[in-house]
């Protein structure tokens, strides 16, 4: 098999990391634009109620992305380890199984959502005044959700060969999404359905490009045919179980954003009504950009860590972790300062009317919410490291702590003490406590 210019076993770790990081980062930024573009066009083209409705439905696309991260990262870790051990055919099978199983799984979830959209909207906390808007968006989005999952999975395997192909595929997808968003919302007036369809078409194009590359042009990992004998189905189930176990923390990490959104929606509705949810939705649109940047950092380090872990070169794996942590801290501080300084401009991207209560609530709350960035980045990077060296139990414990247990507790308890400010600070407090626990663990036991 032809080898590309990236050698995870012998090239300098710093050079490898930089070579992975910058194209991966650009690709992630374009992925984030998928999210933020919808928010800008929905907020300005349809209104703040539509913005709130999309945020009500947000846990669904967070779930779809979480499925993609779970099968993508878990499958990429297994494939990278098998490549390090010279098992190229097994790595190809891993990639194919992860892509197919995740697509089928998300399709089943989408069918369920489309069958009961009103019930799902109510479960997600939609107030009665926006229930129809939330229902409209859920139906249209669910029709394409499986392609979001597949796009995420395929990105991981495409990136094993080098991140540039993934970057260009995401760039093309995002440009298509932006153009169609404008046409469907402002020109054809399709409302929330238009926003969902525009995103779906962009994701389908990205999937087609990556599948074509992995079928014919990839020098390292390729998609292939799977057998459908009973023995092959059993093998697929076993491999999928191992992939899920390794990638489950990535799923929980993404699901944690869904928990944050869902819990935050309930609490904001209780304290500030629909305008509060609309204000919170601005950070829920902006936060995935921060998440994807940190994801780009750990995903750039992941193949280096996993390959060298499989090769028993543990010093190189830890060197990659150190570089990822340095990049994470610098990036987190940069975004913290930038968000605080530009809080009014960020709110204005989504809500043009500065007399709107949603705009005022957002400007007030953004600085408090943004305190979480540095701790969030360190936690995500450390958890990703544990996943990459097959310590799935430890990564799962930290993910459940930072993503589910602590945010829910903080969202409900802090407002009792600090009022509305406590809602905005809930995520930052949860991330800080998790950071402290990780530091204690690292002190007591060498990473």
From TrEMBL:
Major location category of this protein: membrane
Membrane-crossing residue ranges in chain numbering: 21-41, 61-83, 95-117, 137-158, 165-188, 194-215, 242-264, 276-298, 319-341, 361-387, 399-417, 423-444
GO terms for biological process, alphabetical: response to antibiotic
A UniProt-annotated Pfam family: MatE
CDD domains: MATE_MepA_like
Annotated membrane topology: Multi-pass membrane protein
Entry's family note: Belongs to the multi antimicrobial extrusion (MATE) (TC 2.A.66.1) family. MepA subfamily.
Annotated GO CC locations: plasma membrane
Protein name: Multidrug export protein MepA
Keywords for the protein's UniProt record, in alphabetical order: Antibiotic resistance, Cell membrane, Membrane, Transmembrane, Transmembrane helix, Transport
